[in-house]
Design goal:
The chain has about 350 residues and is mainly beta. Helix content is about 10%, strand content about 40%.
Length: about 350
């Protein structure tokens, strides 16, 4: 009887022990069983321009006060993943900057990745990877006349990256599957230089605009839409003139026939500079930079010179003004309709 009791007690302990192990394993069931386990490892391509007619890495002038590498963007803070399923539906999830476990059902899917830390960019038509686009919010500037008739005036886009993988097949595995991706830039920087010949000492504030730039970019492959927009930006005064680092999607209809506008006319690009003098007077200058932009459709350096503020304009009136005065530098956000 004693031996029977011992056997029963031992059996109960074994069963309890095995039950406990199974219960513990249930907490990590996916890790220890056949399931889809995809681990994204993200690399970020930190390029601010692409080489076309000008190799700015070779042509860079150190006297400009910036190193070429100073203009490189930083990696984004996080990633938005959109998984397009065979039945036409899609699902979204967020990953940290370096990547991480990507939720995905078994089967073949299209995978679209872009950064999720933008502020001014508006995403549209995300229901399919082929139509997913990014644009930017409209702004107004009361003193700026139309550089190109009918173009929207827009804010600079934030730094945008993207990566697209068509027909990725997810399988159930025992071990995690590494999924390396490269996040490519979809926005580029134009370093714009306005050089003054005379009268810079009269200038208190400066801002500008570049007309004819792409209004939108497709997230899957980085090609731009055929509609043009005028990008507004603020400028910084230097000891030789005015400069800015303007971000954009590049030129419209790239890499197609980007020398032609949506209406069939030849593409042209107008650069504006607006300065407010110490006496409060506002002067505006325009430059045709078509040749420069055509030669660098995705970022680069735009330079204009010969700008003059006459002594008459600079000394007119009765003294200075408050550089924080209302009506200068304020831009009104106009949300885009999503349809």
């Amino acid at each position: 009887m004693k031996n029977l009791f011992c056997h029963l007690l031992l059996s109960a302990l074994v069963v309890s022990s095995l039950s406990g192990c199974r219960k513990d394993l249930c907490f990590n069931h996916d890790e220890h069983s056949l399931s889809v386990k995809i681990d994204v490892a993200a690399d970020w391509e930190l390029e601010w321009e692409r080489t076309y007619d000008f190799d700015w890495q070779e042509l860079w002038d150190e006297e400009w006060g910036h190193a070429y590498d100073d203009l490189r963007p930083e990696a984004a803070k996080g990633i938005r993943a959109v998984i397009y399923h065979a039945n036409g539906s899609f699902s979204e999830s967020n990953l940290p900057q370096a990547g991480g476990r990507l939720p995905m059902p078994e089967g073949t899917h299209d995978v679209l990745l872009y950064n999720n830390d933008t502020e001014y960019i508006v995403f549209d038509r995300l229901s399919t990877a082929a139509t997913a686009t990014a644009t930017t919010r409209g702004v107004t500037r009361s003193s700026l006349g139309e550089l190109h008739a009918g173009e929207r005036t827009v804010n600079q886009p934030d730094q945008l990256y993207g990566c697209y993988d068509e027909e990725y097949t997810a399988q159930r595995t025992l071990q995690p599957v590494p999924y390396p991706v490269v996040m490519h830039p979809l926005t580029y920087t134009y370093y714009i230089r306005y050089k003054f010949d005379k009268g810079l000492q009269y200038v208190a504030l400066a801002r500008g605009a570049l007309a004819g730039m792409a209004e939108s970019v497709y997230l899957s492959d980085g090609h731009t839409g055929d509609q043009a927009a005028t990008v507004l930006f603020d400028c910084v005064l230097t000891d030789w003139g005015v400069e800015t680092q303007m971000q954009s999607f590049g030129v419209p209809n790239y890499p197609g026939d980007h020398y032609t506008r949506a209406d069939g006319s030849s593409a042209h690009y107008l650069l504006n500079l607006e300065v407010r003098l110490q006496n409060g007077k506002i002067l505006s200058y325009e430059f045709d930079v078509t040749d420069q932009v055509n030669g660098q459709p995705r970022g680069g350096v735009i330079s204009v010179d010969g700008i003059v503020v006459s002594d008459e304009d600079g000394t007119e009136g009765s003294g200075g003004f408050d550089v924080d005065v209302d009506g200068w530098g304020d831009q009104i956000d106009i949300p885009l309709p999503i349809g």
